[in-house]
Queue: 2 jobs
Job 1
Amino acid sequence: MRTVVTGCAGFIGSRLSEALVADGATVVGIDAFTPYYDRSDKERNLRALEGEQGFSLEEVDLSTARLAPLFADADAIFHLAAQPGVRASFTDFDHYVRHNLLATQRVFEAAKDDRVPRVVWASSSSVYGDAKDYPLREGRTALEPLSPYGATKKACEDLARIYRARGCETVAMRYFTVYGPRQRPDMATRRLVDAALDGLVFPQYGDGQQSRDFTFVDDIVDATVRAASAENPSAIYNVGGGEEATLASVIALVEELSGHSVDVDRREASRGDVRRTAADTSRARTELGWTPRTSLRDGIAAQVRWATEVRSGVA
Ligand SMILES: NC(=O)c1ccc[n+]([C@@H]2O[C@H](COP(=O)([O-])OP(=O)(O)OC[C@H]3O[C@@H](n4cnc5c(N)ncnc54)[C@H](O)[C@@H]3O)[C@@H](O)[C@H]2O)c1
């Protein structure tokens, strides 16, 4: 299979690229190395792909580059590039417009022109906002995002619907709080593990009772790969790990698994943060044959191990 992975140097995109290459696919990886976090982190993410025959890197920006030549002959595009993060979307919205809306419309348009059979792309649980009922279900739960970031992902879902009607088969994966090795430095679990290992203060926004449906990165990759080859896939899938946990319980787990206590600095709840997420994943289970396989305990243990290896120069 000939594939394109956008955002290949990022947290999820690099793991996905590795999984595809290991499966015998070729990957044209696209990344602009945006400065949201350190380039050196992204270069480290790509290290395992260095010298791989099946992988090539194109450092281009999807919001400006000519995409048709890069997409020609692809069997599938995995579009993961984006400007993530809820908090910064209130102040730096121009980045979200460019890297989410503009980039995604250009990806869909070029994929349609190149007749790429399928585009699997990263949406987010953020499209739901605070719901009236849980679990959150595709096609049932209202989409009322609480952040500008969530609003851009919701708008991207509209773009995907428009292009699907125009013959470009788009499949949206609504990822729920992804964690594990290589997690982005702005994300709570990463900051928590860093605080535990380096003796730093962990700023806790809110009362700690907010909960998330945590999803291990390899389970996210598995669902995403399955969506590329499924027969008659739906337009949208929830991808959630199935183990809802409060921030307070994750703090306790990180303390236990790292062997260090964490100094918590309690702050006001952050704008845009929802109180709860919990995915109904029956659609992905039935149609993609997908099941999340990593427990929160095993996944956090893997993330602590990785962070320790980074500190000792092994990872
Ligand atoms: N991590 C999560 O918990 C989570 C949850 C829901 C959805 N998502 C979505 O999953 C995708 C991957 O997230 P991640 O956590 O790996 O983020 P990441 O920031 O680690 O990776 C995104 C990559 O995209 C690249 N990029 C951004 N704009 C680009 C552009 N215009 N052209 C080319 N490359 C560009 C960045 O340089 C970065 O390497 C994103 O679409 C994100 O919104 C992530």
Job 2
Amino acid sequence: MENETRKYHQSVLLNETIDALMPESEGIYIDCTLGDGGHSEAILKASGPAGRVIGIDADPEALAEAEHRLESYRPRVRFINSNFSALAEVAWKEGLSQVNGVLLDLGVSARQLDTEKRGFSFRRAEFLDMRFSPSNGVTADEIVNSIPEAELVDVLFRYGEEPRARRIASSIVSARPIKDSMHLAEVIKLGSGYKFGKIHPATRTFQALRILVNQELEKLEQALVSATSILINGGRLVAIAYHSLEDRIIKNFIRSSSNLERINKKVIRPSKDEIQNNRRSRSARMRIAERHAG
Ligand SMILES: C[S@@+](CC[C@H](N)C(=O)[O-])C[C@H]1O[C@@H](n2cnc3c(N)ncnc32)[C@H](O)[C@@H]1O
């Protein structure tokens, strides 16, 4: 399939990312969430002819997709299957002690939601896996079908900010064994008592499970520390979050770091046009910080 007909994830806040990173030739950039490679492609274009990208993704299928897309940039881009929490180690292994910019575009890609059959989507019946890396850790299936109800309530409150956590956890436990993602969504829809509003009644529960399965908040904190340690003086950290828990971590990390200067006072959000063209961008929030000697 050629690039023209292949359907890629639509990169969010793409121009804003390039404005923030200010890629230059000779610069080295780490894209911690390579996905389908859209942000990396824009960085490679803007940093031609000699800028380089180290692309990281925990999901091997995402890497394969990005490799295909970025074929023509190959000498300037590396594809690394790793968790981004280890980004500094990844850079060292590549022989780099410092880089000019680090990008984190968190969460799942449209392709993971729509085609990978990993249980991220509640619109189709899929095995409840939810791991970014299919070879690591416990699946969402094991969690929904085995953890005690009180623990499930806590997970839904904490990682989903789900006000009806108790009702939902109780209906999940009563309906065990939960067969697949669609079954789970149905159980939540009936058990929560939510009428359909702006979001599907299962949205917060699915978010909570994904965060727990992938230890997303812990990995994000580790990545922020790691990124700060390898940025050059004047290098930029750009982070795009899709829910308030991760955005809060990024905001507080930048605020409390003696090495980082906040560049945007107000969080950057997609324009009305971008949201109209790509509904999935609507929750995106971008923060930019610049590294300085502390
Ligand atoms: C929103 S998508 C990135 C899309 C990409 N910026 C683009 O333009 O195509 C997020 C990607 O980050 C990956 N990811 C999420 N958490 C990760 C982690 N802790 N370590 C490595 N990759 C991660 C996911 O597998 C997914 O491919």
